[in-house]
Write a structure and sequence with these properties.
InterPro entries: Puta_zinc/iron-chelating_dom (IPR005358)
Number of strands: 8
Region (Disordered): 1-28
Shape: globular
Pfam families: CxxCxxCC
Radius of gyration: 19 Å
Structural class: mainly alpha
Largest sheet: 2 strands, antiparallel
Oligomer: single chain
Biased composition (Basic residues): 1-21
Helix content: 55-70%
Number of domains: 1
Protein name: YkgJ family cysteine cluster protein
Order of helices and strands: EHEHHHEEHHHEEHHEHEHH
Strand content: 5-15%
Length: 281
């Protein structure tokens, strides 16, 4: 089904079985005008519920282990959990047969003029990814860009920033491409377009309310994985919430990413604040 929107686990055998069940629920699904099944909405709702529950259980298995045996889960456990969560999301999307096809392609950056929101696990995973892929000089340059972007948005709410989104290119839009594609947040994986012309019109007009046709099922899959992470974090007594990508990166980069990403991960995993360390933007 094509909709219009405003421009914008565990490695146990049971875990594998649940993921296989989710894949079978979307395998061969033809998403487009040909689908008129009256119960498609209920099928999607059931699929979302299963994904959320599976991600919650995966988080409990991975990060809740310290509750059972007294051991501390370190950043490597969190990294693996997020790597698997992205893999689950991408594999489910790969099963879809989309009609009309996505207009999104390499070098098309209209959607990169959005300040997307992400969760703490997504932000920390991105921090680890940057440590693996960028040198000290690159990280220093990124820190300066993050500071400048955050300063431009100072005092503005997420809603206000969203309404003037065309003014704020993503921090990781470099040389006409996404420079963090393997570690991009879930929002970036789920939002899509079937019309490049609509995206172009939205950016050129500066009208954030320009309707853009997209596939709701892809948003649902990404949102379900993200909600599973949020609910799982909350159930474990961990900080659960959203922050704009640029602001999250400013927290991680300020004073040195290597030191910050490890300390932030340790603090968050022990029940401390990550996003909430900064009270005002």
């Amino acid at each position: 089904m094509v909709s219009r929107s405003r421009a914008r686990g565990s490695r146990s055998r049971s875990g594998r079985s649940k993921r296989a069940s989710q894949r079978s629920a979307v395998r061969g699904v033809h998403v487009g005008p040909a689908i008129q099944a009256p119960d498609i909405a209920s099928q999607h709702e059931a699929l979302a519920t299963r994904i959320i529950q599976e991600r919650m259980e995966a988080m409990a298995d991975a990060l809740g282990a310290k509750e059972a045996d007294g051991s501390d889960q370190d950043f490597r456990t969190l990294y693996e959990l997020m790597r698997e969560s992205y893999e689950v999301c991408d594999s489910l999307m790969a099963e879809l047969e989309l009609d009309p096809p996505l207009a999104c392609k390499r070098g098309c950056v209209y959607c990169c003029y959005n300040q997307v929101s992400l969760t703490a696990p997504e932000a920390l995973f991105l921090g680890f990814y940057l440590l693996e892929t960028r040198g000290p000089q690159q990280l220093q340059e990124l820190e300066l860009r993050a500071r400048a972007l955050v300063e431009r948005m100072r005092g503005k709410s997420r809603q206000e920033i969203g309404m003037e989104r065309h003014l704020y290119p993503c921090l990781f839009l470099e040389q006409g491409n996404c420079s963090i594609y393997p570690a991009r947040p879930l929002v970036c994986r789920g939002w899509n377009s079937v019309s490049e012309a609509m995206c172009l019109e939205s950016n050129q007009s500066g009208d954030a309310l320009t309707p853009i046709e997209n596939h709701a099922i892809m948003r649902l899959l990404a949102e379900s994985v993200q909600l599973g992470l949020l609910h799982g974090a909350s159930a474990l007594g961990l900080e659960a919430g959203y922050l704009l990508l640029a602001r999250a990166m400013a927290l991680l980069l300020d004073g040195g990413l290597e030191k910050n990403v490890l300390s932030c991960a340790e603090d968050w995993l022990s029940g401390g604040a990550f996003f909430a360390r900064k009270k005002a933007w």
